[in-house]
Automatic annotation (TrEMBL):
Protein name as catalogued: Uncharacterized protein
InterPro entries attached to this UniProt entry: DUF5641 (IPR040676)
One Pfam family it belongs to: DUF5641
Record organism: Dendroctonus ponderosae (Mountain pine beetle)
Length: 168
């Protein structure tokens, strides 16, 4: 599952670009205009991913239930080996609670299958099933029913998972 971008309408797929050389630590007097612009872009991206993505993930205390994940919520699955644009998009299927009643682990459905991830490795996106931002309440209710009755599949059934995502 990938986010829909203007490139999908123009060329039918996401734009894949070659990573540029990193200019963040190069002194400004050694850069031409293009490289200075690239440096500004890289500095913005680094700061945005450090501040905004972490803000989405912020949790005050484990004892607090406000802002916790819930089934049906759209999340990014953080991967420290990948840049944020390559993080997988998924939907929370189920929360697993500890002995103290606090959810610390979630089952997340992605294109590759169902993953079991710690809540601290998930970034909730500001869009949720309850917001009604999709295709009306009927569509949202159908999604909730589907998520509630979804059978967990092994990660090896990629084709079936893709078909399920395409149907809904």
């Amino acid at each position: 599952m990938t986010p829909l971008t203007p490139a999908h309408f123009l060329i039918g797929r996401a734009i894949d670009h070659i990573p540029e050389q990193c200019f963040i630590r190069t002194p400004d007097n050694r850069l031409d205009n293009f490289k200075q612009l690239s440096k500004l872009y890289q500095m913005f991206w680094e700061r945005w991913s450090r501040e905004y993505i972490l803000e989405l993930q912020r949790k005050t205390k484990w004892r607090s239930t406000s802002g916790s994940l819930h089934p049906g919520q759209l999340v990014l699955v953080r991967d420290s080996n990948l840049p944020p644009l390559k993080w997988r998009l998924g939907r929370v299927l189920e929360m697993i609670f500890g002995a103290d009643g606090v959810g610390r682990v979630a089952l997340v459905k992605t294109m590759d299958g169902v993953l079991k991830r710690a809540v601290v490795r998930l970034c909730p996106l500001p869009v949720s099933v309850e917001s009604g931002d999709f295709q009306g309440r009927g569509h949202v209710e159908a999604k909730k029913e589907h998520l509630a009755t979804a059978e967990l599949e092994p990660a090896g059934k990629k084709k079936q998972t893709r078909e399920m995502f395409e149907q809904h």
